[in-house]
């Protein structure tokens, strides 16, 4: 499977602010560094700048690249890591040629992605009209006011609308990039890459942008061991009461602290872990669906199919056909 070409779209005729450098670096770390030991071929990333000759006197960073808007239009995936602060704060216009290039790329079928304030560029191109979208929570009110045709949700990490995807700022941009790898190359590759980058393998897009992390460290210390234990015993009948007892907490306290630490209820966290385990087994083993559902704690094959269809978007069989490394003739299902 060839993951295709990625154009990282840079507004290079203005000063690059710190957040732009951060999100540009995130996308480059995921798609630009060739992780050929995880999947060969890897993505073909090109830095595509609006202005190929940035102002040498501009403060901050500038990028010199041989790739321009023609390369952006031809890419399979276009990522806008952010836009200059003046666009967001003062409504300064984005280059018309850049906006037209985004429209052309989308019209020819490219997947178009924004990180943080890059959503303003997608909205200006009309790509968010009638679609759910997000950005950093400090900017979503302005985004919704300026582009009322977009359905802006300022509470989530990222939104996947199929061809058009948007994320909140900072670490949420990394979550969306890993989500794209998961979509393209499967959960196993995405999880291995996340481990290499020392980040969580999968944070669902619907998780809140900001969660209460004010629990004292001495109280949080007991969460890590019990969460690790649960992740290694997913085939067992785990309950919130049992996990709380193992953590030495009341059920109510355990529920509150895990939700504060992860943004999810304990049962939702368990389901997310079980789906991730099932995805990995579908990709890397020839176990029958029934056995995988048992090993991951999802119960029956019918229950696993129901959860996959609802949360992953495809059946386990279709997922295995797309991402499984075991030849079909050797599979048990």
List keywords for this structure.
16 helices, 333 residues, Rossmann fold, two-stranded parallel ribbon, 3 domains, alpha/beta, 6-stranded mixed beta sheet
Name the helix and strand elements from N-terminus to C-terminus, one letter apiece.
Answer: EHEHEHHEHEHEEEHHHHHHHHHH
Please work out how many helical segments DSSP would assign.
16
- Output the strand order for the largest sheet: 2-1-3-4-8-7
Question: What is the name of the CATH architecture of the largest domain?
Answer: 3-Layer(aba) Sandwich
Domains (count): 3
| SS strand fraction | 5-15%
CATH-defined topology of the largest domain? Rossmann fold
Keywords: Transcription, Transcription regulation
InterPro entries: Class_I_gatase-like (IPR029062), DJ-1/PfpI (IPR002818), Homeodomain-like_sf (IPR009057), HTH_AraC (IPR018060), INH-QAR (IPR052158)
Protein name: Helix-turn-helix domain-containing protein
Organism: Streptomyces cyaneofuscatus
Folded structure, characterized:
The protein has 333 residues and is α/β, with parallel strands linked by helices. It has 3 domains: 5-196, 3-Layer(aba) Sandwich (Rossmann fold); 217-263; 268-330, Homeodomain-like (Arc Repressor Mutant, subunit A), CATH 1.10.10. Helices cover 47% and strands 9% of the residues. It is built from 16 helices and 8 strands. The strands form 2 sheets. Strands 2-1-3-4-8-7 form a 6-stranded mixed sheet, with helices on both faces. Strand 7 (158-160) and strand 8 (164-167) form a beta hairpin. Helix 1 (18-32) packs parallel to helix 7 (171-185), helix 7 runs antiparallel to helix 8 (187-196) and helix 11 crosses helix 12. Mean pLDDT is 85; it is low at 14-19, 211-219 and 328-333.
């Amino acid at each position: 499977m060839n993951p295709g070409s990625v154009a990282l779209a840079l507004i290079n005729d203005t000063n690059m602010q710190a957040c732009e450098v951060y999100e540009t670096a995130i996308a480059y770390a995921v798609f630009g560094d060739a992780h050929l030991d995880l999947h060969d071929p890897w993505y073909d990333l090109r830095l595509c700048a609006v202005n190929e000759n940035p102002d040498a006197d501009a403060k901050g960073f500038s990028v010199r690249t041989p790739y321009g808007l023609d390369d952006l239009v031809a890419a399979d995936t276009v990522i806008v890591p952010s836009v200059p602060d003046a666009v967001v704060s003062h409504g300064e216009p984005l280059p018309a040629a850049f906006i037209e290039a985004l429209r052309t790329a989308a019209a020819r079928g490219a997947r178009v992605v924004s990180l943080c304030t890059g959503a303003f560029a997608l909205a200006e191109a009309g790509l968010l009209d009638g679609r759910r979208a997000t950005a950093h929570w400090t900017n979503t009110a302005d985004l919704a006011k300026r582009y009322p045709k977009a359905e802006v949700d300022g509470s989530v990490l990222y939104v996947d609308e199929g061809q058009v995807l948007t994320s909140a700022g900072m670490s949420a941009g990394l979550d969306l990039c890993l989500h794209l790898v998961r979509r393209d190359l499967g959960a196993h590759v995405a999880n291995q890459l996340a481990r290499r980058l020392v980040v969580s393998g999968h944070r669902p897009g619907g998780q809140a942008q900001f969660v209460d992390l004010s629990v004292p460290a001495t109280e949080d210390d007991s969460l890590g061991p019990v969460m690790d234990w649960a992740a290694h015993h997913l085939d067992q009948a785990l309950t919130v009461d049992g996990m709380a007892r193992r953590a030495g907490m009341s059920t109510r306290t355990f529920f509150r602290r895990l939700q504060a630490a992860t943004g999810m209820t304990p049962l939702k966290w368990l389901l997310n872990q079980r789906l991730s385990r099932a995805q990995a087994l579908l990709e890397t083993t020839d176990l029958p669906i029934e056995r995988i559902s048992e090993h991951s704690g999802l119960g029956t094959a019918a229950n696993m199919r129901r959860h996959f269809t609802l949360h992953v978007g495809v059946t386990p069989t279709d997922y295995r056909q797309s991402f499984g490394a075991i030849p079909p003739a050797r599979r048990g299902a």
